[in-house]
Amino acid sequence: MLQQMIELDKEIFLAINQGMSNPVFDWLLPILRNPYTWAPLYLFLIIFFIKHYGKLGIIIVACTLLNFGISDAVSSHLIKKNIKRVRPCNDIEFKHDVNVRVRCGTGYSFTSSHATNHFAMAFFWIVLFRRKWRHTLWLCILWAAAISFSQIYVGVHYPFDVLCGSILGILIGLTTGYLFNRFVPSFVEEKQNLTTQ
Asked: pTM of the predicted model, to two decimals?
């Protein structure tokens, strides 16, 4: 059963990594998964949260960073170092079939930390802001999904790595968002006031 899942994972990987090859994705997706690409967005959000919410904004920024730290620790240190799945671009028997579009890296493959971290942030923000800004839900999911999908396309993760990383990130984001609402009641009260106006 496990071997069948691994073979299916490889087939889906090749369908994306090779079958979907095109010049637009070759240019765009390596950019999307580069953390420096999103630095202006993160800077904007930090300024926006602090300017819009004041002291609460500082707490939101701090909790976003804490959420990221938790997701990265669970994925990169707890899971990867115990599962030790080799990346497709480093698999001796498989890498000759892989179109590697970025530096492969030496770390392990399962789970995808890109997927875990970005879905954790996305769902943390969704829990906080979906009532005030309804489009937050789809924008955050699209953002995290695009980054996660690019990990397969560029050849550094299998689909199952990304799927499980995404699920893990969603669970972490929902949990930290719930805890934020639980322990920062002033933010919840502000949201409730906005919805009743």
From this structure: 0.91
CA distance 37 to 55: 28
d(CA 129, CA 147): 21
Consecutive H or E run containing 96: none
Using left for φ > 0, alpha for ψ between -120 and 50, and beta otherwise, residue 110 falls in beta
78: nearest Cα among 113, 35, 104, 33: 113
Q: What is the pLDDT of residues 82-127, one digit of tens each?
A: 999 999 999 898 888 899 999 988 889 999 999 999 999 999 999 9
- As a whole number of angstroms, the distance between CA 79 and CA 82 comes to 5
As given in the structure block, the two tokens for residue 58 are 């500082």
How far apart CA 63 and CA 69 sit, in angstroms, is: 10
